[in-house]
Fold these 2 entries.
Entry 1:
Amino acid sequence: MTDTVEGLVEREYAFGFHSDIETDRAPKGLTEETIRFISAKKNEPEWMLAWRLSAYGYFVTQSEPTWARVHHPEIDYQDMYYWAAPKPKGEAPKSLDEVDPEIIDTFNKLGISLEEQKRLSGVAVDAIIDSVSVATTFKATLAEAGVIFCSFSEAVQDHPELVRKYLGSVVGPRDNFFAALNSAVFSDGSFCFVPAGVKCPMELSTYFRINAENTGQFERTLIVAEEGASVSYLEGCTAPMRDENQLHAAVVEIVALDDSDVKYSTVQNWYPGDAEGRGGIYNFVTKRGRAGNRAKISWTQVETGSAITWKYPSVILAGDDAVGEFYSVAVTTNHQQADTGTKMIHIGRNTSSTIVSKGISAGRAQNTYRGEVKVMRSAEGARNYTQCDSLLMGPDCGAHTFPYVEVKNDSSQIEHEASTSKISEDQLFYCRQRGLSEEDATNMIVNGFCREVFDELPMEYAVEAQALMRITLEGAVG
Amino acid sequence: MLSIQNLTASVLDESGTAESNQILRGIDLEIGPGEVHAIMGPNGSGKSTLSNVLTGRAGYGVSGKVLFDGADLLSMDPEERAAAGLFLAFQYPVEIPGVGNMYFLRTAVNAVRTARGEPELSATAFLATAKEAMAELEMDPAFLSRSVNAGFSGGEKKRNEVLQMTLLQPRLAILDETDSGLDIDALRIVAHGIEKLRNPERSMLIITHYPRLLEYVKPDRVHVLRAGRIVREGGPELAYELEEMGYGPGEATAEPADATPTDTADPSGSHAEPDDGPQAPQARSLL
Amino acid sequence: MSTAVRTAARIPGELLDSLAGDRAGESHPTVWSEWLEANGLPDPSAEEWRYTPLDEMAEALFASRPAGSPGIDPATFDAVAPRHGGVRLVFIDGRFSEELSDSPASADLEEPLPPGARVGELCGLQGPHAADAAELLGRWALPQGEDLAPNDGFRALNALGGGDTAVVSISPGVAVGSPIHILHLRSAAAGDDPPTLSQPRTLIDVGSGASCRVIETHLSMGAGFTNATTRIRVGVDGHLHHIRVQDEHHAAHHMGDTVVETHRGAHLESIAVNLGASRSRCGIDLALCGEHATADLSGLSLLSADQRCDTVLGVDHRVPNCTSSQDFRSIVDDRARSSFCGHVLVDHGAAGTDSSQSNRNLLLSRRAQADTRPWLEILADDVKCTHGATVGRIDEDARFYMLSRGIPAEKAESMLIGAFAAEVIDDVEPPALRDTLYARIDELDQGAHS
């Protein structure tokens, strides 16, 4: 197994390149002026600016949370840029042909050419480079169904009443340190609105990409599913190789009204830093959904990238019979640190939640599951099942499981199971006796370990996730 | 085809040094092409250790020589031995949750084919072969979509082993207690599957405690293993003699039968020859 | 996951003075006074104190004062104090009571202690045992400022104002058959006096290859505060069976702090039973310091009315090849609240660790509450660790099955509750103590129906 670990440590970041796109920037540092600059740049209405400023007012009174099991040098919030946008060459593009060829080239390197996406996958793409949407497709099909899917900036301009109604209703501007930061300075993101009774005709997808040096990336996503609506949303990220740490503090809010169904899937493969732990993305994300009566919110995530991951996609089970799910695979190698999990807050009657977390730790990485299950007094008949499994590869890594369970209703049923072990020698030997190399055997066993989570991903993402795992384990055995 | 010369084995302790207690104490065995040999012996005699050492399981200090088609088997990795045509039907097949049986089998078959310089099988071709073999073994095709051995009954696991053997087409198959835990119908099916694979090019080494599998797969030679040594050899009739007479005094040992790799030889170190007793009775049907 | 930081409570100077005065004869109580003045009680936002009702604990502590003259008459004592066979040592308000204790040499004992087994009060012990015990005390029970972590306020308080020390010291190779019983009792305040404060200390040292059973009981006659420490060392190949019973007065506050270290090949079985006190904390810190040791910790809390009990375990696998298990259960009725935090740490290099943890909570009433945090922190790769937690009420299917076989509802429920507790209680020795526990479960259940 020693060889395996060395192989992991030596793996190269497959998407490590840097493209050169001219950006225009706000001055370095964070002040009220920065926020006014961003808001003005985006031509926002007064209420939006007021909302940002209230978040900023809270942010400056708070200090960074310390409870997560992650360590990093102090972040100087005054030493970074809070606004960067690709410089438009002339008018805004009306079609892909008009998009900056360099941007198109960047997508091509990532293997997510918009043309390809349009033709082959039938997936609408709201692609983001740095902080501003540059291309959106499939709007017509979606509009026909009444679905609004656009950049957050457009939504503020075109659907202010919807944004104003739902923005901050699940993750308020004063929710936590990083959410407050995001609320103050968010540059752009996605907005998705599925009206009552509508099943979104296609899976919605956004690719994120961090591109400019020293630019914090503050995405804001808001998904609203009205009564009886359903939508599946995909988020995937990759970032170019960098020496300096890059901060990312995104917020995703999901509003799932009665009888709606929202599925949110993430494959996260940002630059994790080099083998010595230099560089890499700091990924401090707040994701939360609120589920009404009989509504269902399902989070699935495959986290392989980032130097630090701090992320707890959560569900507030507010309505009766609401369902919350969290399926997660988190892989950490080299010096990566992940502190990730979920919160399931049971308020409604007969609410149920499922948590399946698979952590894989190799090299000198530290992988933590942190999850909270809270059953309020009103949550008659609440159910939770939690399963956390950790796989350790090598003697220098760590796997930690920190569940919090609080139950205030006696009719609830809560079960939590967890296990930690290394890859079984018996399994490895069995595979090798059948002719598989140690690397293939390891790969196969690890993929099997993650199966329950991969099965929750939409097909094309499941394939991408498996490919990511393979890259992660590439050269694992010498 | 297989030539074992003065093979010894000890369990390695935590620090990787061999413990003084040898489990195999000098085994000599020759298996020719197409021959079926049976190794019988009481619990703790070293039967499972022999199969582990031959297939390259870690955790043993080994000396002696094993030639497989003239090549030095002991210097090869487990997967190289598999590619060379060595197959072990495990006494306790391992469960691998999340890994589909079909995916596992096809990966194994193609890994072995690639190592032998043969082209990989297409998914369709593989599926057709697999389904045919499964029908022979009276296995539900649904097994292909389940995880490897996970949640299988004892009999299903053993059938799955024989299925893998059928698909991998080994040169030498070691069957480690493949008959244990099978009811009479399952035994018949499994034995039929094994017998079908018998041909002049393929050899087998059947490790068993009881002679009931040998009723279906008649061995050319029977060897009695005891305290790490082969103490008796004979034709198929020897199996029935053992059934009748037992393995002789001192059969009971302190070691559990499934202790792997801590499976050790009879700690009493009894070297008593088995009771020769009267002449072997005529072979008879056990059914 | 709030980031709000609350500050630790300061301890009133008057209380510190009264405790320091209590130890007027000793050399440097100021070490702890000063430490406590600087650090105060534990920080309520610290993870391991998150569910301990520290505000209420502090309030009760600050209102209490050390009892005056030990105040209990022998007749009252005999009426409340249990006997478990074997030698019994009695401490009233933290002071050794020679009068109420058995003399280890007494001919009245069914089974006299073998030579090499010494029990008594620390200062009363003679010879090498006293030296060993004093050495243990030096490291544990009386930590100096630099030994104390910021949240060790209650430890420092015990060091400052602790009473006599109950000692069980078993010489290498000595096996003690009958249980040794240490009984700590806090008296009720007389008249208008403030509630009493008692700070018992217990020290158990099991030598190499030695074995014994110890029952440690904490009782009280009225409201007040008990701040108890227990220090245990199980030597190489030693074997200790330890039962700690907290059965204080319903208005009492109890802070329990047990620190255990096991050495190579040692075997520890520990059962912590929490029955009484309005607010209580049962803290157990176990360090596995020698390879091939086995430590089986279990516990049972029976809570009703508005009781709160916080069980906090720290299990530290420092060396390879140790096995530990934790099985903690609580039965919670009325508006009571049970909380559990089990933190298993497998240190760097502790390969071959096998650890399993289970916390199960049975809620008997609509307003009962349970919080559980079974935590694993693993820094070695060749380990097998599992944990599990459940919270729920009586299994309806099982209950219905029993009803359908003609068992009355109340009986069915009490049988099921008994079965839930059985896995912990069945390891309790002697049988009389086990029966007492079952009787207490029945009481709890009947209370639920009244």
Entry 2:
Amino acid sequence: MTKRPKQAAPGPLEYLRRWPLQAWLVMVTVFLYAPLLTLMAFSFNDSKRNIVWKGFTLKYYEKVLQNESLLTAFGNSLTIAAICTLVSVILGAMTALLLWRFRFGGKTVLDGAMALPIVVPEICMGVAMLVFFAKVMPWPGGLPWPLNLGAIIISHISFSFPFVAVVVRARMASFNRELEEAAKDLGAGEWMTIRDVIIPHMQPSLVAGALLAFTLSLDDFVITFFTSGPDTVTFPVKVYSMVRFSVTPEVNAASTILIVLTVILTALALRFQGTDAVAGGHAPDPKA
Amino acid sequence: MEQSWRKAKSVFALVLGPPLFWLVLFFLIPLAIVWVYSFGTNIGLTQIAFTGTFSNYVRAIEPLYVGIFIKSVGVAALTTGLCIVLGFPVALAITFAPDKLKAWLILLIMLPFWTNLLIRTYALIAVLRDEGYVNMTLNWLWTHAGGLMSFAGLKPLGDFVPLQLLHNNFAVVFGLVYVHLPFMVLPLYSALDRLDRSLLEASLDLGAGHARTMLQIVAPLALPGIASGILITFIPALGAYLTPDLLGGPDSQMIANIIERQFKRANDWPFGAALSFLLMYMTFIAIALQSVLAKRSAGPKA
């Protein structure tokens, strides 16, 4: 917080310049960040017991980089997130276009059904996927990578694409229909209008939606926990099994890598989108 | 300004087909199967007979499970309440911050939210466990205070007993608040940001204090935003699995943990299915309540 001690007293609504609110903000920030920052700091700590600071080391990062199963899990997570993002953006954009543009019977029902994956508790969706892939559509075992990740990818797409649809639809609300009419007047057909007028307008929200889908997929533990098998472990599932045993600097190191990756992704989002991509794209408010 | 689907059938078919196919096959059908299972009976290890029985639901109203349901609702409500208390001043600060600072403050709140849930939970374990940072700090203070007291001629304090901060209900609520706070701040902020500031100024001019302005002017006007913040926090908190699993103790089981156990360890899928649908119904009730509230508060204005 910038200190401006010799200024006039804060105006009636300048709440940010009042000390109780500043103190509160600092407290909340400490609450949110202290655990993560200490976690990152202690990944460099040269002590197995992870309690007292014994000196700087990178050996836990070396360990992480030599940990085959952790690296495989990390690769799996990134692959799943990438494929899930691609498919979710396509499906989400289609859904948004459908619900934004067309009038048809059963639209309200479909609209509600599309909101279901957003509101249904993760655990319910997890068990539904478990049952589905156990009884209805058993995912064949022993497929070559990355096909063996199919079940996880499918379930990730199922909960990601409605989020993308919400983001894209919000963007389409600001579309000027006259542009479309102009395109049609100038002789563009339905397809050409979509390609040259509507999709360019959608574009920022497609990027925001993609980032959202990527994070949702990378972040998911519960649903993956129910769909992953012994050969298809993702990073969160792997970390979960490590955490169950103990708190080790190795987990700290692996977590730090992922946190840094998250920060880089967020910075990229900011670069391309401004803060809207971070905040606007991430307000999961289906009602809004 | 929507157009009828008949005017552009091929486009309509293309944008309807794939999402509908995906939603039905990979979401609605799996849920429907779970729903059917909830009326089934286990016969043998992997066989489930669809007997149309309600016994799974009857079993769910045994005191043990009702207790867990009530407890889960209580924990989620407490979490939501604490998130409002913690988050409201933050949302207020963001709302009335200068534009440039505003963006950074939003980022400050959102960044932990983008971080992996498992990592955040793990970070809390490291903070709260017996050898965690909180207990270490307390231990240090204790020892030094003990030294100081014996120096002053008083009886020294006994050995430091670490506070039991992990594996109990406190840790679960702490963890849920930690995880869900950003969920609350954003809708609160977007509601506060839409407020007509002259109303606040008028209230302050006319002699109401800040607290009274908040309670009597801001809170009622921001009610829809507060309601959606409550919903967005309450629903995931109610269905939380990871936080009670990793931070909770034997008595901190929430609904999701019981469901997981039926599917993975107890191998009683029909009962687990019934419990998941009960959880889903509770979620829907919460959503319905919120939309009724939103409609009512929007009503007089319209």
